Amino acid sequence: MSLCYLNGRYQPLDEAQVSPMDRGFLFGDGAYEVIPVYSRHPFRLEEHVARLESTLASIRLPNPHRPDEWAAIIREVIDRNVWEDQSVYLQVSRGADDKRNHAFPKVVRPTVFLMSEQLITPPDYQREEGVACVSAADFRWLRCDLKTVALLANCLLRQHAIDQGCVETVLFRDGFLTEGSSSNIFMVKDGVVLTPPKSHLMLPGITYDVVLELAVSHGLQHEVREILEDEVRHADELWMTSSTKEVLPITRLDDKAVGNGRPGPLGQQMYAWYQDFKNTVMRSG
Ligand code: PDD
Question: If we measure between CA atoms, which residue out of 190, 182, 165 comes closest to residue 245?
């Protein structure tokens, strides 16, 4: 049984209830985070809490908690659930009003909800073989840097991949790579790792930051710059990154092999560095 947190109370997930007037339900008016937990240690906790703060500020939703309070709630949710490795989901919505009105309520009582699931990272066969993806036009709004719960476009784009037996949809906007429906995308060409710069068109991924830090610390040649769709289609390697997928090779895009169709050496190296980094951080508490 999963234990969750709702507005100050820790309770079984199947007993938690939210008003149908909640603006998260009616308008998708809220922010969220997904925090991976390894051996009961939340990974990059400060960074997740800082990104939440940034999303809340951008959508003008007063942050109900200080960073130390968030950390305490997150740790309590981890402690109260059974798994060693977890995926903690945290959501703050603008709360319930007594009528449906697009404008913000005068008095905001945010709804704070956290739950945890067992963290399921990609199975060995996916890492060993790589995964197949499709591409699509990125038809989302112009604030993809905000981690809001209004994810219908992302859901449609992900389902587009699932319908074709693939795991992710790689998105292009005006001829340039943005990201995946729920991941960031890296490519390799001639030994250089490339990824798009942070902007309003993509989510500033926590894993994306870790991967770039590892590229710097290991002296891997890399460039953060705009990437043309055509470059992606001629990449030697493609990877997707996220808190739950970690670093996962993409070996087919739109039914064509990426590079030689096998996971490439730099992706495998980056995955190994990522695991080492995780283990080192977790051991140091
Ligand atoms: N998604 N881009 C999008 C659109 C995402 O939804 C995510 C993560 C990422 C990667 O961000 P990070 O490295 O911080 O996980 C990029 C989460 C896992 C989700 O919605 O479940």
Answer: 182
Q: For residue 169, how far is its CA from the centre of ligand 1 (angstroms)?
A: 13
Tens-place pLDDT, residues 167-190? 999 999 999 999 999 999 999 999
Check residue 36 and give its pLDDT.
98
pTM for the whole structure: 0.97
Residue 114, pLDDT > 80, answer yes
C-beta 169 within 6 A of ligand 1: no
Q: How far lies 227's CA from each of 141, 176, 240, in Å?
A: 20, 6, 15
Q: List the beta strands (DSSP E) in 104-226.
A: 111-118, 131-137, 168-173, 176-180, 184-189, 192-195, 222-224
How confident is the model at residue 285, as a pLDDT? Answer: 64
Query: Which candidate in 99, 106, 147, 198 is catalytic?
Result: 147
DSSP strand pairing (111-118 vs 86-93): antiparallel
Q: How far is CA 93 from CA 6, 156, 255, in A?
A: 11, 22, 39
Average pLDDT, the chain: 97
CA atoms within 13 A on the CB side of 115: 11
The model's pLDDT over 38-68, given as tens digits with 9 standing for 90+, comes to 999 999 999 999 999 999 999 999 999 999 9
Q: For the chain, give me the number of helices (H) and strands (E)?
A: 8, 15
Report yes or no: 274 and 215 within 8 Å, Cβ to Cβ: no
Which pair of tokens denotes residue 31?
Answer: 């922010």
Q: Is-catalytic flag, 147?
A: yes
